[in-house]
Amino acid sequence: MAYGTCGFPSIRCEKAMIVFPAYCRVAIALVLLGAVPSLRAQDHSHASDPTSPSPLSVPLDEATLATLPRTAVAVTAYGETVTCTGIRLSVLLTRAGVLSAEHLRGPALASYVLVTARDGNRVIYSLAELEPTLGNNNVVLVNQCDGKPLPGDSGPMRLIAPAESRPARWLRQVKSITVVAAP
Fold first, then answer.
1. What is the number of structural domains in the chain?
2. Which residues form the domain of 31?
3. Both 26 and 86 in a single domain?
4. Residue 75: CA atoms inside 13 Å, Cβ hemisphere, count?
5. 64-88: pLDDT as tens digits
6. Fewest CB within a 10 Å sphere: which of 35, 79, 117, 122?
């Protein structure tokens, strides 16, 4: 440990010939670690647009959903097989401007979709597992099964994931879908 001309301990960088007193090293470390709030970014970046704030609410209104292509899936849960129709979650996220293969890299890979039900239950899917060229997990937001609207205890919308080995992340009475950029 060397001492600078002011008497404070310092480290000398031989290549750059810069001498940093000990108190400067602490200040530099705090800035680099983001401990100084005024120097930290206040918003997390959104998956497809770094200037968009997080979290982002995905619209679930009837007008938006009516414009999206519908898909049918046959699913079996708890010994019952039904054919349900709805909208792939990846299609809904693409329409909302959240999911795009050309943007899904870097920080966007740490973004996730939080789906909340009226009863407070929640499930999470990563954007990567929903993106068709990466995970391609066929998660569907359905509003009909066997040609009938979902009953009140399941609907008006239900999230199902037919490829998963058990329906642990299926969610009844979907209330909201939010995209969050992980901190």
1. 2
2. 2-39
3. no
4. 26
5. 999 999 999 999 888 889 999 999 9
6. 79
